[in-house]
Amino acid sequence: MIKFRHSFSSGKKIPSFQLLCLVYLIFLTIVTSHQEAENVYQKRDYYTLSNTDIKTLVELDPPQWDSVTDGHLGKLLIPRASGSENNTLVQNYISSVFTNLGWHEEKTPFRGTTPIGEIDFTNLIYTYDPDAPRKIILAAHFDSKWFPDFPANQFIGATDSAAPVAMILHLAEFLTPLLNNRKERILSGLGILKNDFDEEEIAETTIQIVLFDGEEAFKDWTATDSIYGARHLAELWSKTYLKSTHPLNKNKKRKFEPEPTILNTIDHLILLDLLGNKHSMIYSYFRETDWLHSKLIKIDQNLKNQNLIEIEKDENEWFSKIKLRGGIGDDHLPFLHRGVSILHIISNPFPSVWHTLGDDSTILSLPALRRWNRILRIFTCEYLGLTPNLIISTTTTTTNRLQSKKTIDELVSLKKIILTDLYDIILFGWTDDSNLRIVDDNK
Ligand SMILES: [Zn+2]
């Protein structure tokens, strides 16, 4: 692993032409190998929407909100600490949204020991197609941080994480008709493979929403006072074995391989946190999802190029191409530690109002929320091969397609790659954002 260092000091001579050529060549090699490195970790097809399709998807926006408190967000912007009545109200609201959409609901209630006593927690899990053998997960936490005294106990947590939850609810509403239509089309035998794009792989992948309870620490963030819901769920899933008819079991090559669990069915877990204010800076933290982070950059750039998002003053760039390794403590950790592939979409540095009463509706930005909604919409449509016309256009092309067809048993090899990243974590530990390491990819 190489750390970036300043290699030119002010006292140096001007480099010769030959030297400049050499530096340029090295730069090209680094850029090329970087791109190749991302492709190595891409384990599935990724459909790229045409500009026309992207424009159509953006025009399918829900009625324009006049205020950040319109829509789902208005229902979530209340203090909702784990174990409180408001927490239950929010759970019920979220449940009603997904029930209306017809998604499968699973709740995992449990009692946890916290520094302030026993607390009841409930994770909420919604799956479009519970029978699908593999899935992509979008996740956020719906609890807000508990403070004992007034006025601190009125902490709302607008960016932390009411806004990310609202984005996910809007996304699910948006995707449902497209998913319904694709399901009908595939069931009727129309087009499994279109235009060199592997719809079979796509058809066996569903989307799951996981909304964690108990992300926040009740006192100080420690291994035991934080991410209660995520720790519970990762542990539960690591012990929930798949049916013998599941493709992962059928594809098992050796008798003594570990029994696959629910965790093995997760292609990627994408965690959103601390979003919705004007400023965001999103880094990539994990080698195996650098390619997904690059997709986000491309989508944002494309939306900008087509004038489909409103860029606020001084907010041009939301995504950094610099890779940060080490990561930030959050709900993904118990899954990462068990080999799940993670994309962590979190603002770094944290919003200036983090864990203060200022993290309320006034910090949220309508243009930023719309921008996130559109980015997530395009991203999930491309990941899941969904198009606005519901039939994949014959004129669009697939980019970044791998030469060979990828199947579900490759999830197992993906898991091995992730464990390599874990080596870094064991060596350097989990840190907050003040202690992140900048490294290059070319190990
Ligand atoms: Zn928080």
Structure description:
With 443 residues, this protein is an alpha/beta fold. The chain has two domains: 12-41; 43-438, Zn peptidases (Aminopeptidase), CATH 3.40.630.10. 37% of the residues lie in helices and 15% in strands. The chain is built from twelve helices and eleven strands. A six-stranded mixed sheet has the order 1-2-6-3-7-10, with helices on both faces. Strands 8-9-11 form a three-stranded mixed sheet, with helices on one face. Helix 4 packs parallel to helix 5 (158-187). The longest helix has 30 residues, at 158-187. The radius of gyration is 22 Å and the shape is globular. 40% of the residues are buried. It binds zinc ion.
Give the SSE map:
Elements: H1 17-41, H2 51-59, H3 72-76, H4 85-101, E1 104-114, E2 117-127, E3 134-141, H5 158-187, E4 193-194, E5 197-198, H6 199-203, E6 205-212, H7 228-238, H8 247-250, E7 266-273, E8 282-284, H9 290-305, E9 319-325, H10 333-336, E10 342-346, H11 366-383, H12 410-428, E11 437-438
Parallel strand pairs: 3-6, 3-7, 7-10, 8-9
Antiparallel strand pairs: 1-2, 2-6, 4-5, 9-11
Helix pairs in contact: 4-5, 5-11, 9-11
Bound molecules: zinc ion.
